[in-house]
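Components:
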Amino acid sequence: MRAHYLEASGVRPVPADPRGVLAGTHYLDGDFACGEGAMAAGCRFVAGYPITPSTEIVERIGRRFPFVGGIFIQMEDELASMAAVVGGSWTGTKCMTVTSGPGFSLMMENIGLAAMMETPVVVVDVQRAGPSTGLPTMVGQGDMMQARWGSHGDYGVIALSPRSPQEAFDLTIDAFNLAELYRVPVLMMMDECVGHMTEKVVIPPADQIEIVPRRLTKQSPAEYLPYRADESLVPEMIRAGDGYRFHTTGLTHDERGYPTMTVEAQQVLVRRLVDKIQKNAHKIIRVEEDQTAGADVVVVSYGITSRVAQLGVEMARERGARVGTLRLVVCWPFPEARIRELARVVKAFVVPEINFGQMSLEVERCAAGRAITTGVPHAGGGVHDPEEICRAILEAAR
Amino acid sequence: MSPLIQLGTPEAREHPITPYIRMDRMPHIWCPTCGIGTVLKCYGTALGRSKLDLDKVSVVSGIGCTGRVAGYVKMDSFHSTHGRALPFATGLKLGRPELNVTVFSGDGDLIGIGGNHFIHAARRNMDLLVILVNNFIYGMTGGQNAPTTPLTARSSTMPLGNFERPFNLPHLAVTCGATYVARWTSMHTAQMTRTFTEALKRKGFRFIEVIAPCSTLYARLNKLGTGLDLMTYYRDNFEIRNKADTRELDLDFQSKIICGKFVDEERPTFLEAMEAHYRDALGDQYVPMPPEGGMLHGQD
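Structure:
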């Protein structure tokens, strides 16, 4: 079954390159599965800097790339890693970098450049507990707002959150596809638990994996303008070395890609950078719902917390509560319309997350007072006690 | 449209530099008598002489006055973030190894904020031609002190004179592993062009420093006169010393400027070393990145 975002895009995917696909049933941790997902998606250039708990991803890739035709380079820091993958992507080669909290902070500069140059790249953040060095080996979900707003200025972005090693594989492929479809940095917001959890991962054969190819223009260099977009709001791309002699810049630019220091150019460009995600959000958003029809309370969660919350939900159901769940598979863009809809019929949302309230702010904003939003914060370093989530549900259902 | 712009369009008059410059972006932003335009002209001339396929030449800049070069060259060109031209160019080169990549930027960009990337790109012998225009200060932001400001020279943030020792850039490049190192002033157009032409054909990390003190801010703050006075100063105070010991290339305030080609040697580039290593380790199982890049089937 073709994924919703692919169906909605109207783009015809191609099968994966079998060289990158380790088809079969494996017992892998989330980090390795993410690395395999990248290779299956066609990623052939990775620049990274070691940081716990993401390092296993680049270790996997460093080991496998020589057999796959890819290049891995360990850069001097995360500033360089992010800059390298933005540069690399302009060759048509699919690129990824991998990090955790402190490195994610350093990458913000060139995530902004990727957004401004409209460069498809995938950035994996295996979240650990912060702030600062925090608990380097232990879980956190405190980078969710940074994913959305971390680089200065306004831009649209896509972020995904896997709940299992299988999803680390599947969603990494989706991340590459979405990056190509919308020409944005796509952020894989993993967490340490999913990264280090080992489970069964089924990797399908290459011909069953759907890949969005780089959408290169068919126009001639004479007629092509690098930043002219049609109604999809996403311009067609070119790559370095094909004779287009294009220019691209982090400065505000016009359709030619030339720096244009005017309020008007800023308005046109930044409006489109925001709109290309906002207006296509319905094609990108993905949530998983269970028993939300007729529920009094809906638990909204993502990543490892969605698995812990499941236990809390079941405990609450045993005690008679009518509880549904909504899991964010795509966290950004946020499913505003669906939360608004649910807010009209449920009493409350309960939002457990391993931070002091990030995605819960979005839930609260969209609920707009029609339903109560109860956050269940956790400082990080561990996951919630399901009993705590159950209590929050029962309290909210009263 | 001003008469100047009309004259500049390729249809109106073919200046020898037009094949290499986006004439539709003229006039440029550089001050009158600034040396950066001269360096760009020499680079364009060198490209012509090199007979390289310009479709396969990419130029990457960072931020600052020299960082604007990428916006004016008529090739695939990338105006990246402050200090990050080298890692950006590294990705570009490794993503499509057949590209000939030039990094064109300033001292503050490549050595100040980008210093860490500079030493590592040189250490790896990354296949990049690096042209650094050294204007001794941060020009775009108004003349602040740089890691290249000579001792005692005034800058807007050190109005009583700089007391921090500046970098000796050719020596820094050599000690970090650059395989081709040269220095000229913006007055040495013939020599600079010859060096660029030669360096375009070499492999590995090639570093060329061009001395061109900011003729607006540095010259004014240090009472050095006009751009013409700066040129006169270079003419009277340079010395060509090819193969010089790079330890002796420090630049003091208004000191003699030692120019020339200091290093020109061969060492495996990052890509060469990587491919040789994997071939050795994996034999036929090794799948190298194709020269045209890692874009997959069905993507073209």
